[in-house]
Amino acid sequence: MGQGFTLFYILSVLYITPIFHIFKKITQNLSPPIFVSSLSFVDDGFFVSQKKSYKKSNTNIFCSYSIISSFFEQFGLGIEHNKLEVFHFSRATKKL
């Protein structure tokens, strides 16, 4: 069954949604908690970290990615690690 097949999208949601719920509970109960929003669009997803510091934001994103990657592996699902991209947006008026 390949991408484009209707059942693919339904199965993706059924598998991925519980993983993101577990992820949210675990990251908020860590000490210190990791506050990252996760968004998923069928088989694509991303994390959003709202920090003023690039270093803190980057750390949150990569910790989150490590956790979710581990979950996917435990559930027998794969992640295309080579598609990982990190963006940092800032309203800072001076160099960070």
Please describe the topology of this protein.
Elements: H1 6-28, E1 37-41, E2 44-48, H2 54-74
Antiparallel strand pairs: 1-2
Largest sheet: 2 strands, antiparallel
Using only C-alpha atoms, the radius of gyration works out to: 15 Å
**Sequence stretches where pLDDT stays below 50 over 5 or more residues:** none
Categorize the overall geometry: globular
Mean pLDDT: 80
Tell me the fraction of residues in β-strands, as a range.
5-15%
Question: How many domains, as an integer?
Answer: 1
What is the CA–CA distance across the termini? 47 Å
Protein structure class:
mainly alpha
Fraction in helix: 40-55%
Question: Keyphrases for this structure?
Answer:
single chain; 96 residues; mainly alpha; two-stranded antiparallel ribbon; 2 helices; globular
Protein model, in words:
With 96 residues, this protein is mostly helical. It has one domain (6-83). The protein has 2 helices and 2 strands, in the order αββα.
Brief rundown of the structure:
The protein is 46% helix and 10% strand. The protein is mainly α and 96 residues long. The relative contact order is 0.14.
